[in-house]
Inverse folding.
């Protein structure tokens, strides 16, 4: 491959990477878009390198204060004035002069200014709390990499919004459940807000599950602080429930905490649970819903590991091991006593 062809290919890859980077900020970004993006990333090492380079530059730019805002378009910001921005203060009056720069430098500066403008707008968007939204439909589990290096795994039917600033990494859990493998950054705490509670870490591994104003936190590594009306410090193995009554912490083993998070691999680990609770868990992962119309049946207890999306196998087991029968009614499976 000659040099001209190599440059053309690199430019094409950079343009594609830029397009993906901008598109991922759109509120209309879908699971199908994420699938196409993942395929593009895995298609070539050059793709991954180009995107990572741009993403790192994007993150660094988010810490700037709109460097060129308010400056005459044909001149760089004067020394001593780089800290000013219409978002953080007013520019002093700038006298305009005819540019003495060569035309080719002006063209390059224009391109750079355009990139800074896009990044600057997105940085301000993150700082104002809009950020980037991620969601999963019923039955789907998805892992995404946040720009700070954190790996976030969303459970079924979940939605979060992520906003990164120079002082804080903020995640709002609108509903559902998410597991976070947090990248260490002591200068920027990692904060998950859910149901009026704040879960704060620097570099650790934990999950947050929200059902209305009730929140469950499971910690598998590091330390996490939960803030509500009071505060609680969580260590590895902690399983905490925070609701309107306060924060209740159970100190368990790390293996038990990991088992609570078996959903990450598509399994549900049920340990001496009532049939009503077990069915409620299954219904989170499936559009085909199971219902119980008999209180005595609801109180039966069950234990085992089950595929979260295999309703038929679960129902067959119930009909085999318990004194119940299953009746299909359209999208419903009704469990009744035999």
């Amino acid at each position: 491959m000659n040099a001209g062809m190599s440059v053309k290919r690199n430019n094409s890859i950079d343009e594609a990477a830029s397009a993906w980077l901008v598109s991922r900020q759109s509120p209309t970004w879908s699971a199908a878009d994420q699938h196409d993006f993942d395929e593009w990333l895995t298609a070539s090492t050059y793709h991954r390198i180009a995107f990572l380079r741009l993403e790192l530059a994007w993150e660094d730019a988010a810490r700037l204060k709109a460097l060129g805002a308010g400056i005459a378009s044909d001149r760089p910001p004067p020394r001593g004035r780089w800290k000013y921005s219409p978002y953080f203060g007013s520019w002093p009056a700038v006298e305009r002069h005819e540019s003495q720069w060569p035309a080719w430098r002006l063209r390059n500066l224009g391109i750079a200014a355009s990139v800074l403008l896009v990044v600057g707008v997105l940085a301000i968007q993150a700082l104002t709390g809009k950020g980037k939204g991620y969601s999963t439909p019923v039955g789907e589990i998805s892992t995404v990499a946040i720009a700070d290096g954190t790996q976030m795994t969303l459970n079924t039917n979940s939605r979060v919004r992520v906003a990164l600033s120079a002082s804080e990494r903020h995640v709002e859990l609108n509903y559902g459940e998410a597991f976070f493998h947090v990248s260490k950054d002591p200068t920027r705490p990692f904060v998950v807000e859910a149901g009026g509670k704040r879960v704060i870490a620097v570099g650790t591994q934990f999950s947050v599950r929200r059902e209305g104003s009730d929140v469950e936190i499971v910690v598998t590594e590091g330390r996490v602080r939960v803030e509500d009306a009071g505060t609680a410090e969580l260590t590895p193995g902690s399983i905490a429930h925070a609701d309107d009554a306060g924060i209740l912490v159970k100190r368990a083993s790390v293996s038990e905490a990991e088992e609570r998070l078996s959903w990450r691999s598509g399994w549900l680990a049920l340990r001496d649970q009532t049939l009503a609770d077990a069915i409620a868990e299954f219904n989170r992962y499936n559009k085909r819903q199971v219902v119980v119309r008999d209180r005595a049946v609801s109180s039966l207890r069950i234990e085992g590991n089950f595929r979260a999306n295999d309703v038929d196998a679960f129902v067959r087991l119930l009909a085999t091991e318990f004194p119940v029968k299953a009746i299909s009614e359209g999208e419903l499976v009704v469990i009744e006593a035999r």
About this structure: Helices lie at 3-23, 31-43, 45-61, 103-127, 254-260, 275-285, 295-298, 311-321.
